[in-house]
Amino acid sequence: MDAAHRIRSAHPGVGVVVLSQFSDALFAFELFKHGTEGYAYLLKDRVGDLDELLGAIRAVASGGSVIDPKVVEGLLARRDVRGQREALTPRERDVLREMAHGRSNSGIAGALHLSISSVEKNVNAIFTKLGLENSGDVHRRVAAVLAYLGPDPA
User: Fold this and answer.
1) % of residues, the chain, pLDDT over 70
2) In total, how many domains does the chain have?
3) Residue 27, domain member (yes or no)
4) Phi, psi dihedrals of residue 35, rounded to the nearest 5°
5) Which residues of 132-150 are buried (b: 16+ CB within 10 A; e: fewer)?
6) Cα-based angle 98, 153, 148 (whole degrees, multiple of 5)
7) In the beta sheet, which residues pair with residue 19?
8) Which CATH number is 35's domain given?
9) Are the C-beta atoms of residues 29 and 5 closer than 8 Å to each other?
10) CB atoms within 10 A of CB 112
11) Which stretches within 11-154 are classed as H helix?
12) What are the transmembrane regions (predicted)?
């Protein structure tokens, strides 16, 4: 993670894709601690699909962010979600899981067999329930995933 941050410091416009052996979200949090734009955290044992890797590289190159779905799914399956995160409906969690795959609203609509309008409503509900305001400084889609997976407040 230090190398990723040094690369970004020296070359702010360069996207960074981290291939890790650790599925623990704390490692992903470390990568995203200074912002999410232009970063990807993928598990190296799951990057056998060239299209998936290229999709992540393209997303990062265009300023997006990607977190390996296994990191997200594993934590969703075993996590006792409290506070704001508890307010998410099962459908909103499905949409959030698809966000973590790096899918656009139309991609989410296709994956979940929903209308784009329905996806947009769910995405906005997620942002509202997680307290994520529209700001140019934060990529709300990645912030939503990180807020959902983050440590519980003390």
Assistant:
1) 80
2) 1
3) yes
4) 135, 165
5) beeeeebbbbbbbbbbbbe
6) 0
7) 42
8) 1.10.10.10
9) no
10) 16
11) 25-32, 50-61, 69-78, 90-100, 105-112, 116-129, 140-149
12) none
Note the pLDDT tens digit of each residue in 50-94.
Answer: 888 888 899 899 888 888 877 766 555 444 344 556 678 999 989
- Is 136 within the bounds of a domain? yes
- Position 11 scores a pLDDT of 92
Residue 141 pLDDT level (bands cut at 50, 70, 90): confident
In a domain? residue 54? yes
Band (153; pLDDT cuts 50, 70, 90): very low
In-domain check, residue 135: yes
Higher per-residue confidence, 99 vs 29: 99
The long-range contacts involving 27-32, CB below 8 angstroms and separated by at least 24 positions, are: 27/1, 28/67, 28/68, 28/71, 28/146, 29/146, 29/150, 30/1, 31/1, 31/4, 32/65, 32/142, 32/146
This model's pTM is above 0.70: no
Beta-strand pair 16-20/66-67: unpaired
